[in-house]
């Protein structure tokens, strides 16, 4: 596998997913009225598959599924971000 940064395990896809999840977290934080569905957020950040977005990208990067993240966000402002 080709790594962008040889001293890390970041290949191109992992790097892209990192930025997509970071953008998704910002969208979720700013969507205080919960107008967007998870798939809409996924589409906005460049994913076209909910399962891949939920499990392979979002959970891997943040430690939570988007639904878990939203629930924690509703309960607390102290969620660590990616």
List the helices and strands and how they pair.
Blueprint: H1 12-30, H2 38-44, H3 50-62, H4 66-75
Helix pairs in contact: 1-3
How would you characterize this protein structure?
This protein has 82 residues and is an all-alpha fold. It has one domain (12-75): Homeodomain-like (Arc Repressor Mutant, subunit A). The protein is 60% helix and 0% strand. The two termini are 24 Å apart. The model has no long low-confidence stretch (mean pLDDT 87).
Could you say which overall geometry the principal axes of the C-alpha atoms support? Answer: globular
Q: Tell me what portion of residues adopts beta-strand conformation.
A: under 5%
Low-confidence spans:
none
Average the pLDDT over all residues and give the rounded result: 87
What's the level 1 CATH class?
Answer: Mainly Alpha
What is the count of DSSP helices, taking H or I runs of 4+ residues?
4
The major beta sheet can be summarized as: none
Q: CATH homologous superfamily, by name?
A: Homeodomain-like
Taking the alpha carbons of the first and last residues, their distance comes to 24 Å
Number of strands: 0
What count of domains describes the coordinates?
Answer: 1
Decide which structural class fits the backbone.
mainly alpha
> SSE order in H/E notation?
HHHH
Tell me the radius of gyration: 13 Å
CATH topology: Arc Repressor Mutant, subunit A
Architecture per CATH nomenclature, i.e. the level-2 architecture: Orthogonal Bundle
Q: Fraction of residues in helices?
A: 55-70%
């Amino acid at each position: 596998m080709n790594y962008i940064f040889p001293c890390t395990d970041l290949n191109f896809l992992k790097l892209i997913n990192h930025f997509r999840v970071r953008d998704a977290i910002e969208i979720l934080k700013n969507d205080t009225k919960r107008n967007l569905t998870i798939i809409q957020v996924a589409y906005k950040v460049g994913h076209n598959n909910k399962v891949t977005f939920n499990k392979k990208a979002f959970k891997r990067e943040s430690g939570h599924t988007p639904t878990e993240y939203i629930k924690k966000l509703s309960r607390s402002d102290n969620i660590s971000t990616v």
